[in-house]
Amino acid sequence: MLSTSRPHLSVFILTYNQKEVVGEMLEGILRQQGPYTLELVIGDDASSDGTLEILQDYQQRYPDKIKLLASNKNMGLIHNFMRTLAECDGKYIAICDGDDYWTDPFKIKKQLDILEEQEDVDLVFTAKNNLFPDGNLVADPRPDIAEVTDFSHLIRENYISSVSSVFRNRTREKQVPQWILELPYGDWPLYLWTLVNGGRIVYLKDITAVYRMGIGQSASYRSNEIAAIAVKQKILRFMLSDPHFSSKRKEIKQSLEATCLKRVNEYNRRKQRFRAFAEMLSIFVRNPSLKSLKHYLYSLNQSFKH
């Protein structure tokens, strides 16, 4: 039975038909060392391949650590995301999807040490390795990312891999936006929601985890550039209409315009010039800008050269 005292950390885990890899994920979490208490909050979305049975076995072995949320029928990634998030009681939250895993036994200690010592830091993430379907393991140190960033940087693009992130749990203070239920994934908007009041992001260059490339629903969206851009536009528009983000409207608008222009570029790159024109027209109607017009004309010109 889980302890009644609040743990330092909730490890937020979503699983679905990952029998072959879910044990490796759990072992990476359970071998964490340090003074911090943790709970594993696992939302299984009606797995049918034996994943649930593995999870139940681990829950029986670690009843004081594992909270297992099972489903009778498949609810979909984002509904599973929201119901699992609601069960996270820790002061902080870490994310580890069922097909990813942690490799550094001091991962959590390193990140929680920073969050405990620096109250103005709301999120800490680390470098990772990428594991490709062919078995190739490639380091992804991201030297382009600054050691300290904030909302104004993250609103432009999501450079945080969920398997490496730990952030403050604000879900006990305010309601998570319900518009997240309209999205194919929830990690990026959840980070931004957590950071909206000005907290900093710290990047540790230590490699602490492995991310499996090209797996899952959110990966399928991100592999299609137009679909990925459309989802990002949707998220930014939700934020613009959400009073919780009112103090960040300028940054959100700037990111939305840049994202719309990126969509124009992608349409032109694909020779879909009418769609590019329609997207540009909608941008220009909202915010007439010579800079945007020049961007469009350059993109159009490039589409005839390649």
TrEMBL record:
InterPro entries: Glyco_trans_2-like, Nucleotide-diphossugar_trans
Molecular-function annotations in GO: hexosyltransferase activity
Every Glycosyltransferase 2-like domain range: 10-124
Pfam families: Glycos_transf_2
Keyword Nucleotide-binding included in the entry's annotation: no
SUPFAM superfamilies xref list: Nucleotide-diphospho-sugar transferases
Record keywords: Transferase
Keyword Transferase: yes
Name of the protein described by the UniProt record: Glycosyl transferase
Organism listed in the record: Pukyongia salina
